[in-house]
Amino acid sequence: MDLSEFKAYVAKTFEDDDVCHCVFFKSKHTGQHFAGVVTEEDGVYWSFVVANERHLKKQRIRSENCNRASAKSKQSYGKETAVKNCTEMYNELVKDEFSQNFGFRVYNVDPNCYYNPDKYLVKGDVIQRDLIGGLPASHEGIYVGNGMVIHNTNGKNICKTTLKEFAGGSDVQLRVVDYCIQRKTPDEICTLAESFLKINKKYNVVFNNCQHFTSLCATGVEFMTDKRQLTEKIVVSGIIITVIAQGTLHKLAKEKQEINGITIIIATSETIAEYYLVIVALVSVTVSPLATKRTETYRQTRPIYVENTHATNTNILEPIANGAVAVVDTFVDGICAIGNGFVSLFTAPRRRQTQRQNNDVLYN
């Protein structure tokens, strides 16, 4: 949105708050506009930096490392201090001095984007879709304009395809990952993505996957946008999946036989997918205590939904918990890839048979 629309958006966002300071500015490098806002409530002052994000008008799915309205915020107990904090935060942005906390929001893209991509997407956008197979993760790519996407995919490595090929069909819901603070211009993102086409860097689900590629192009740092979401989903669903796994283990126990003293499970195409759930359940049981401990530590050391770049973390458990979760995240990535491969391997013949039956119905 242009500056006038952005100013109206900021006014609407803080219309119910007691605003005592507001200033607008923009980044010298990217030209992105920001608003520095200070509000007061019961003697407590909040300093906000609101970013003019590219897709604010779209339907929001989730946010990470940012609160409902701002890219940065900080609490204080005096107006002068709050204004000073606000000034420091936007001065950092004007000078293109960024923290390593990458706040972003995920938005749904209009389904008509397949027919007129440049109307709904911007060059340099990080776009994503659900992984095939129902896994709780996303495949991501860089939209480079004219309906083309550069992405890192298993089997093809970094390649350039059409938007429809990237999605796997024109009926697939696409999403856009909008980084609140733009660290690179659209041309810089696209140029970097294009340069990787000349480098034969092989895809690796753990160390060089599609999300590592898009985050590197958009921010200059490799990380996974689904990391926290995957961990939370595993923790939340751990008990439910464990219950399913108990029933599956009972079923598999009936399909085993003893050969030379070694127990071999005979997994049919129906049970292989369920066996994958057993693996995920076991991972869930392992992850839950670690992730819960990390969540408790995080809440003790940082304000919830607030990126506080000036906070000092003195809790000795934090790096230990972070390291443990990082190891588990890597393990989960591998398990997901193996599970997806098993499901595809054993269900592909059935899908082909179903497709042939459907074709027979259509053409008879």
From TrEMBL:
<dbReference type="InterPro" id="IPR007053">
    <property type="entry name" value="LRAT_dom"/>
</dbReference>
<feature type="domain" description="LRAT">
    <location>
        <begin position="129"/>
        <end position="226"/>
    </location>
</feature>
<protein>
    <submittedName>
        <fullName>LRAT domain-containing protein</fullName>
    </submittedName>
</protein>
<dbReference type="Pfam" id="PF04970">
    <property type="entry name" value="LRAT"/>
</dbReference>
